[in-house]
Amino acid sequence: MRRHWLLVGACGWVLLILMFVSKFINFSFRTPDYAGRSEIFVWTLSSVTTKLPSVVWPEKGASQPYILSSVSPSVVEPIDWHLVNEKRLEQLSTVCSNSSIWNLTHTTVRKFVLDRIFVCDKHKILFCQTPKVGNTQWKKVLIVLNGKFSKVEAIPENLVHDHERNGLPRLSSMTDTEIHQRLNSYFKFFIVRDPFERLISAFKDKFVKNPRFEPWYKHDIAPAIVRKYRRSHHDDSESVGLRFEDFVRYLGDKTGRQHLDRQFGDHIIHWLTYAELCAPCDISYNVVGHHETLELDAPYILKSAGIAGLVSYPSIPPGITRYNRTKVERYFSGISQRDIRRLYARYQGDFSLFDYPKPAFLLN
């Protein structure tokens, strides 16, 4: 009997020792990402040597992403942004060669695309404008580089978008020879953003707030969309204004919207795809920046273009460029799965080209 209790006691001590040791040998841990979700990292040799880790944000509001150190899993170090850009360009190239979504990723480099590209001949830079991702600030940078103003803070807001007076020539204003020469030799970049969050920004800016007083959005475009796409029989008055669900239905209508788009003209640039705006599969860009990591993309672009000592990107309020899943869920709540799937089908090329995750929380 005594031996039995001694054996039980010994087993208990062994279990306690194993539990204690396990605390020191378990390298799995959890870190939060910028969207508020948790992501599990398991420290293995293959994960260090064969794959570039995803960008990790240590806490909400932080401005410095990191990777796990190869020295110790408890040590973090800033990520090499050149590797991030190379990974983005590799992703872009892979998707561009995917024939199954070719029609969503390729576009002809015609005048419409060339109209979107601004030129800085003095420093050999081309910038393709993608609305609703902070383009105003990049225009200010180019205006300073072209010598119109000495610093970005001195540029009046109403001048930035006045393309007759801001000193920013468009690539479309040049001869074919000049266009090809610049496309082949200049530093080229543009900025992207989560496609659905960008659409929310476009909707708010043009149909809700309209801070630059562009009355045609509310007085011409909104009523035309309401007449064609509002389903409610109880409140179909145009005076109610455009709702986000009307906007989503219009954008997801593959064939029906084309007549309206021709009617709206260039005003639709605020919700066109990145492929339609900048032809990223047909023009070889040097850098693709992301709005969500603009705090690090901006200085990297300035350095890569060789202008870091000549101009500064305007200060960015902490956290303002982060992806906001809660806002996306709020705007899409109440919109039918059918309409969301149609919208995703239109912007699938953008999600794939720039490695934005498929919004399964909306589609499933």
Folded structure, characterized:
The protein has helices spanning about 1-25, 45-50, 80-95, 100-105, 110-115, 135-145, 155-160, 175-185, 195-210, 215-230, 245-250, 255-265, 275-280, 295-305, 325-330, 335-355, 360-364; strands at about 30, 40, 65-70, 75-80, 115-120, 125-130, 185-190, 285-290. It has about 375 residues and is of the alpha/beta class. The strands form three sheets. The chain has a four-stranded mixed sheet, with helices on both faces. Strands 1-2 form a two-stranded antiparallel ribbon. A two-stranded antiparallel sheet has the order 3-4. α11 packs across α16.
Summarize the structure.
Its EC number is 2.8.2.-. The chain is 47% helix and 9% strand.
Draw up the topology in text.
Elements: H1 2-25, E1 28-32, E2 38-42, H2 45-49, E3 66-68, E4 76-78, H3 81-96, H4 102-105, H5 111-115, E5 117-120, E6 125-128, H6 135-145, H7 157-160, H8 176-185, E7 187-192, H9 195-209, H10 216-229, H11 244-252, H12 257-264, H13 274-278, E8 287-290, H14 294-304, H15 325-332, H16 337-353, H17 360-363
Helix pairs in contact: 10-11, 11-16
- Separate helix tally: 17
Mean pLDDT: 82
The general outline is globular
SSE-based structural type: alpha/beta
Give the terminus-to-terminus CA distance.
61 Å
Features:
364 residues; alpha/beta; 4-stranded mixed β-sheet; two-stranded antiparallel ribbon
